[in-house]
């Protein structure tokens, strides 16, 4: 307890933690904190492996101590004329969920743990407060599917100590263990972000001084590109000062205005039973073999996203047919989310904030046993339709008609398809995530956690070697079949330690 009190004293009294508004003589701390005694926890998690054997039915303990809880507010108050931030029609349509992500940052210069907490965590808070003056919607509150109230509610911010070294933690991480590093708040769930913080942060400090920087983000305004734009700006502000950041572009709702008469995607496609999540790493040799498949002629060869998504989709569809009845005409769908910014003509700014994405829709009939080449071709065709003409059709008022048509396609598909017979794919490749630097070293691992869907694959970069980490979530019954699929195992390694890919 004495150790914890010293952390609390150091955490709560250091000047850099209590930033005051420069517009007022009245103290307006950028971080408010709660009673220390309330938040001393030790969390115990159980392995939810989908293998049904005794050696995996073990208890795993994450010894985690909460040091402080509060909120980080913008360094400058948001002006009244910017109080309402309108969401775009794509934001409006998108699933309402919170997506956790985590960056693991090493302690490359052996700074003491106490200095990491006092200095580095303090710098994260100070730079975040400065950053929020430009990214002010992220410090607000989502009112409904159409707007954010930019009321300077702030970013929910937690500091924690993990009683392990970073190397020990990453030796064999699993999804349940990683979830213990997510910021927890009574009103924050993966199911809904309405009325909650747009962003929640937990700075997890390991015994070696390494940091697990976990963010939980509202998908009502965050797509993958928005996440990386924000995190790169935060890293720049922490390392070099906020004057060096590229300002966000906050005009998505002008390009893609929302429409109160269009409903968002059916939630039953997204929220289902508790998923089982595992990682499958495809190395560069496996990807080269997949990209050399004799696919249909095109202007370019298949991408890492296309071939990896096809392998996962094929095996997931096969697993689904084992668990549920499929007739010869029963479809299985793949929805591949694609960043539209670069597909527009001229391209939209990378810094354009919001969901600037759409989904390619591919169909297969598992009982007809399509081969891998066919699956790759289907994925490619679905993505190729999302071209500059498609992006143009989404803009301004004409976009409302496009979305109504897209909604009809989804509804028609649901009528002939069990809602569990689909897979969502999202790619976070080619983002430069491992080049991000907060001032004390680049990340050694990035992990994108499940936002609450039991049928999703997230494709992430491997730190070195050009590989792809596919984070796959399925029902436990389907995962047991999927992880034993011979084709998957011929290309991918299951749940390897991220430490294998550092050199």
From TrEMBL:
<comment type="similarity">
    <text>Belongs to the plant acyltransferase family.</text>
</comment>
<dbReference type="InterPro" id="IPR023213">
    <property type="entry name" value="CAT-like_dom_sf"/>
</dbReference>
<protein>
    <recommendedName>
        <fullName>Transferase, Chloramphenicol acetyltransferase-like domain protein</fullName>
    </recommendedName>
</protein>
<dbReference type="GO" id="GO:0016746">
    <property type="term" value="F:acyltransferase activity"/>
</dbReference>
<dbReference type="Pfam" id="PF02458">
    <property type="entry name" value="Transferase"/>
</dbReference>
<keyword id="KW-0012">Acyltransferase</keyword>
<keyword id="KW-0808">Transferase</keyword>
